[in-house]
Amino acid sequence: MPSSKDPPPASTDKDAAPPLGEALTDAERAKVQERRLVRRLRRGDQRAFATIVRTYQQRVFNMVFRFLGNREEAEDVAQDVFVTVYQSAANFRGDSKFSTWLYRVTVNHCKNRLKYLKRRGRHMGRPLDEIAEHQMAQGSGETQPAFHAAIPRPDDLAQGRQLEALIQREMAKMDEDHRLLLVLRDIQGLSYQEMAEVTGLNVGTIKSRLHRARLALKEALARHMQ
Amino acid sequence: MDHQRAQELLSDYLDGELSGESAAELEQHLEGCEECQVEVESLRETLSVLGGLKPVEPSPDFLQQVNQKLRRRGKSAFDFSFGLDRKIPFEAVSMVLLGILLALYLLLVVLPKERVDPDPPVRTRPDAGAPMNPGPPGPGSRTMKP
């Protein structure tokens, strides 16, 4: 299940595609391209930055949205993430994958925004119907087959959207750390090793907390399904 | 494998994180434990629902919004890379500029003053012993008029 959602970073720039030997695998080629892209970013290359934003914007935005549960906040935070990436590219030493560093920056921004919102007593998620409406407006109202399997009437898209909104609402009630692990693993598809690098937790802690988070979500969904 | 342990390992089992031996032990327990069977199926269902959530897309002008933010924060207008591999931090550039300004101030303002106003010459006239500042002139003293 994990790690299959991370395609290699695409490059739209002509000089971002290096003349590589045929012996390199796709993964190795992607790694070399990513390294070159990041090197250009560290020089302040605007085109490299644009390529990075286009490559990762969907993953970063989706992660922030699932974590914060609010589209406007998610847009703002996701933009801040890329601003930080541009300004702090020199701090990326290349010890980990660029995407791992990017996720770490994203998590920090999300946590800071949550603190900010809590200080102002603002509610994190939007009402169920509003999210469902938005999903429909964005054209993402269609649900996956696996998604359908969880609801009593698989052909009813409205129910699928409501279930999605319900998940978002129940996740919003969760402990922040538990929610983060659910997002990283079960929505974003990170490996346990990547999660450890992003969160700074050890793999054992991640596994036990994630298990508790999954059980909590399962119980919450079961209450609504009955 | 006891029931409690089996319950704890269900997530690892679904993630494929158990060793072959542990997975076999758990499966053996599952065959005889209806509660664990229900639990593992509902957990599988939950993961399936989460994994099936369609990714939410940012607004179409996301990149433009990011660039606008960068411009507003005044960083993109200044590129301190100077052709080097790394960008030079803004703080470092500021310190160097401050140092240059201080050096210029010393060279152009402080040092020329010292050259123009050297130490007053030591008096060598016979009345050199007279007080340097005799005080305000008395009513009968002669004063030079401009």
What brief labels describe this structure?
heterodimer; A: 226 residues; mainly alpha; Rna Polymerase Sigma Factor, Chain: A; 10 helices; 68% helix; 0% strand; B: 146 residues; disordered C terminus
Outline the structure in words.
The complex is a heterodimer of chains A (226) and B (146). With 226 residues, chain A is mainly alpha-helical. Chain A has helices at residues 26-42, 46-68, 71-88, 98-119, 128-137, 145-148, 157-173, 176-187, 192-199, 203-225. The radius of gyration of chain A is 19 Å and the shape is globular. In chain B, 55% of the residues lie in helices and 0% in strands. Chain B is elongated. At the A-B interface, α2, α3, α6, α7 and α8 of A face α2, α4 and α5 of B.
User: Count the helices of chain A. How many?
Assistant: 10
Supply the CATH architecture of the domain at 1-124 in chain A.
Orthogonal Bundle
Please tally the β strands of chain A and state the result: 0
The chain-level structural class of chain A is: mainly alpha
Layout of SSEs?
The complex is a heterodimer of chains A (226) and B (146).
Chain A: H1 26-42, H2 46-68, H3 71-88, H4 98-119, H5 128-137, H6 145-148, H7 157-173, H8 176-187, H9 192-199, H10 203-225
Helix pairs in contact in A: 1-2, 2-3, 2-4, 3-4, 4-9, 5-7, 8-10
Chain B: H1 3-8, H2 10-15, H3 20-32, H4 34-51, H5 62-72, H6 90-116
Helix pairs in contact in B: 3-4
Q: Could you write a compact summary of the structure shown?
A:
The complex is a heterodimer of chains A (226) and B (146). Chain A is built from ten helices and no strands. With 226 residues, chain A is an all-alpha fold.
